[in-house]
Design goal:
Blueprint: H1 8-28, H2 38-52, E1 56-57, E2 75-78, E3 81-83, E4 97-106, E5 109-118, H3 124-141, H4 150-163, E6 167-168, E7 174-176, E8 183-187, E9 204-207, E10 210-212, E11 218-220, E12 227-229, E13 235-237, E14 240-244, E15 249-251
Antiparallel strand pairs: 1-4, 2-4, 3-12, 4-5, 6-10, 7-8, 9-14, 10-13, 11-12, 14-15
The structure holds 2-amino-4-trifluoromethylsulfanyl-butyric acid (MF3) and cobalt (II) ion (2 copies).
């Protein structure tokens, strides 16, 4: 499959979809507290996307090859869950670290973003893992410009992650995104500098590293979706949708509540 090169009118629509996805995370933030179920978070987000944003929650009934249709509108991955955690009657408790991953479709275009949330007081280890993962995502984003490669992006993420004693999940990656949820290219969160796809102005893809505190190995749960760390160590993830511009990058998944870009990115 060829990699889409987006023109001004596609980009304008992707900006809108990206902003809406990020605004769902802003909206849900005050609800991510002790005692709430992940099902409740799913329902709140679903209703907000459908009724307030007049958009479509992309995960609902999403059925890539080899998968049963995804049964919910968002992904909630708690503690040792790496990604694609399916909302349920599970009650969030003090100390839980939760990734909420939102993808909306607006006017035929997808916006995809996720953040980490901390329920009450979380451990120092969970905080550090979330911070390192956030910085790793940003180090990858910072490599994006025409002429750079996806290997440069993956290497930046992997080198920083491993220097900090953590591991990069290999089985899942970022992805091209636009009219389809998942398109080429695959954006690996590991790699070698100066290798892989060369970036061109107009490409749009996600960067979404999944970082484990322990070993990188994964396990699939019997629900057919939820992915966990094999050693049950904590895992964290952050995700943005990124446009390659003439001079570098533009983050498309931005809204009033988007967390700040880390300072001193160069020196990390
Ligand atoms: N939002 C996820 C991603 O970043 C994909 C979720 S697929 C689902 O690519 F079906 F689990 F929702
Ligand atoms: Co994604
Ligand atoms: Co996502």
């Amino acid at each position: 499959m060829a990699i889409s090169i987006n023109k001004a009118d596609d980009i304008a629509k992707m900006r809108i979809a990206g902003k809406l996805a990020s605004e769902v995370l802003d909206y849900i933030t005050p609800f991510v507290v002790q005692g709430v179920t992940t099902d409740k978070l799913d329902k709140l987000c679903h209703d907000y996307i459908v009724n307030v944003q007049n958009a479509i929650p992309a995960p609902l009934n999403y059925a890539p090859d080899g998968h049963t249709p995804y049964p919910k509108s968002i992904c909630t991955s708690v503690n040792h869950q790496i990604c694609h955690g399916v909302p349920s009657d599970k009650v969030l408790k003090n100390g839980d670290a939760v990734n909420i991953d939102i993808t909306v479709i607006k006017d035929g275009y997808h916006g995809d973003t996720s953040r980490m949330f901390h329920v009450g007081e979380v451990s120092i280890q969970a905080k550090r893992l979330s911070e390192i993962t956030y910085q790793a995502m940003w180090l990858g984003i910072n490599k994006v410009k025409p002429g750079a490669t996806l290997g440069d992006v993956g290497y930046a993420i992997q080198a920083f992650t491993e220097k900090n004693g953590y591991s990069v999940v290999r089985e899942f990656c970022g992805h091209g995104i636009g009219k389809k949820f998942h398109e080429d290219p695959q954006v690996l969160h590991y790699g070698r500098p100066n290798s892989g796809v060369k970036l061109v102005e107009g490409m749009i893809f996600t960067i979404e590293p999944m970082i484990n505190a322990g070993k990188r190995d994964i396990k699939h749960m019997p629900d057919g979706w939820t992915v966990v760390t094999k050693d049950r160590s904590l895992s964290a993830q952050w995700e943005h949708t990124i446009l390659v511009t003439s001079t570098g990058y533009e983050v498309l998944t931005v809204s009033a509540g988007t967390p700040a870009t880390p300072e001193n990115l160069q020196s990390l």
